[in-house]
């Protein structure tokens, strides 16, 4: 689930789908699937588990850039912060104290700075005309100034978030997925360059590469979690 659920499995918040707030997910799923054990987990946490499994890497950070930004941390093959402790809300790491307003109400969360819609808004402002995804992709490929500026701002914001997480948990690898990042050739590479440029003496950040499971990563993670032993 992308939503935040309370301890009883009720949707506590889902900024992009406010009508779901208060939904008793446990009860609804219980009616659909009676007499089976039910578990839920955050989609970003599950995607991270799946990407870690696919990479054969037990200590990995995953970030997905799409209409929002989600992600997860896996350490020792298990989700962090782990069962019963809430989800890893990587998208709400603050990377710009006076930055854009986020869905959550704060300013400068990486989601507000670097998501697909945030990048398109910035590109539109720079170009002086509305920019859609295909135009951004083409503009970036052609190195149009407005497109390069918009994409590089997002890559820089994402790099700041990844480096911050890396300082805390020391992963062996960091991977970037999500439809927006995957749809802009060079987005992952530019972010990787910016992460590498933030090396401090004696502490190089973990290498950054593309996620490999595409849109199915959360579902792969759910299957892994359902099979047990993965700690989601
Ligand atoms: Zn936020």
Topology record:
Blueprint (H helix, E strand, L loop, with lengths): L3 E2 L5 E3 L11 H8 L10 H13 L4 E6 L3 E7 L2 E3 L29 H5 L1 H12 L5 H9 L3 H25 L3 E5 L1 H5 L3 H11 L10 E3 L6 H11 L5
Parallel strand pairs: 3-6, 6-7
Antiparallel strand pairs: 1-2, 3-4, 4-5
The structure holds zinc ion.
The site of zinc ion has 6 residues, from loops.
- The helix tally amounts to 9
Order of helices and strands: EEHHEEEHHHHEHHEH
What would you call the structural class? alpha/beta
Span from first to last CA?
12 Å
**The named CATH superfamily of the largest domain:** ATPase, nucleotide binding domain
- Indicate the overall shape: globular
Number of domain units: 2
Broad CATH class of the largest domain: Alpha Beta
CATH topology of the largest domain: Nucleotidyltransferase, domain 5
Query: Architecture of the largest domain in CATH?
Result: 2-Layer Sandwich
Widest sheet, order of strands: 5-4-3-6-7
C-alpha-based Rg, rounded: 18 Å
Ligand names? zinc ion
Q: Share of helix among residues?
A: 40-55%
Biggest sheet, open or closed, and with what strands and sense?
5 strands, mixed
- Low-pLDDT parts are none
**Fraction of residues in β-strands:** 5-15%
